[in-house]
Design goal:
single chain, alpha+beta, five-stranded antiparallel β-sheet, 12 strands, binds biotin
Length: about 250
């Protein structure tokens, strides 16, 4: 029975970005669980200022306002929590086995099926809110050339089309249950769940783009704040708080 996230749902046929609308609502005091959904986004955004391809009817584009009592530095764990809920929704609803590329790319057979963009605001080291934006490729058969072979959809993987609201309801249930457990048991529980669902947590050779440079190493777990631990050739372990895995084997 959903409780924590059973707040109001704002639906739009078109928005520039559901995250932007949710941030506006959060700044105006909207409660935890407030959800913004759009049938299409004209300026859907991804991590690192990338664009999120958001054509009408083909994907799920929605954002949820969360207001947990945690320090801002702990907020990235919420993104990991959503990734766990997405993997479980794909499995339980569509028999799709998905992987999580750190921190939040949902991959199916190596191709991206969903992504999460969390944006937060804090005052004096107190978290005001986190907007978690979730984009899921549902019914695309083809993707634009810039995405090309790197993306997939529920339709392509499961072989049948998927109704956005049905997927959202399923995800909502998983998310609500994960969020309640997180509030009871803390970040360590989320990290454990994430590690259980990701092939990237341990023993993957990865190349990490930090924005101002790259380095390579072997993944060796996650810190409790969600940072990826990477062991470099000199034996040192680096914690990656914000970065992008650009190559992996
Ligand atoms: C990524 O993988 O880079 C994150 C993509 C997140 C896309 C979603 S779609 C709904 C929400 N609104 C946005 O503008 N972005 C997120």
């Amino acid at each position: 029975m959903p409780t924590l996230l059973a707040a109001s749902v704002h639906r739009f046929s078109s928005l520039p970005s559901t995250n932007q609308k949710a941030i506006e609502l959060a700044r105006a005091g909207a409660p935890e669980g407030t959800t913004v959904i759009a049938e299409e986004q004209t300026a859907g955004r991804g991590r690192f200022d990338r664009r999120w391809y958001s054509p009408p009817g083909e994907g799920l584009y929605h954002s949820i306002i969360l207001r947990p009592s945690i320090p801002p530095a702990a907020a990235p764990v919420l993104t990991l929590l959503v990734a766990v809920a997405l993997v479980d929704s794909l499995k339980s609803g569509y028999e799709i086995s998905a992987d999580i590329k750190w921190p939040n790319d949902i991959l199916v057979m190596g191709k991206k099926c969903a992504g999460i963009l969390s944006e937060m605001e804090a005052t004096n080291e107190e978290l005001d809110f986190v907007v978690v934006g979730i984009g899921v490729n549902l019914n695309q058969r083809v993707f634009p050339p810039e995405v090309g072979d790197l993306a997939t959809s529920v339709l392509l993987e499961a072989g049948s089309s998927c109704e956005p609201e049905e997927f959202r309801q399923r995800l909502f249930g998983q998310l609500d249950s994960c969020y309640q457990t997180f509030k009871r048991e803390g970040a360590a529980w989320v990290i454990e769940q994430w590690i259980n669902r990701s092939s990237f947590a341990y023993d993957r050779a990865v190349s990490v783009d930090l924005g101002q440079g790259r380095f390579s190493g072997i993944s060796c777990g996650l810190r409790e704040d969600g940072a990826l631990l990477v062991k470099t050739g000199d034996g040192r372990i680096t914690s990656v708080v914000a970065g992008d895995l650009v190559q992996w084997t």
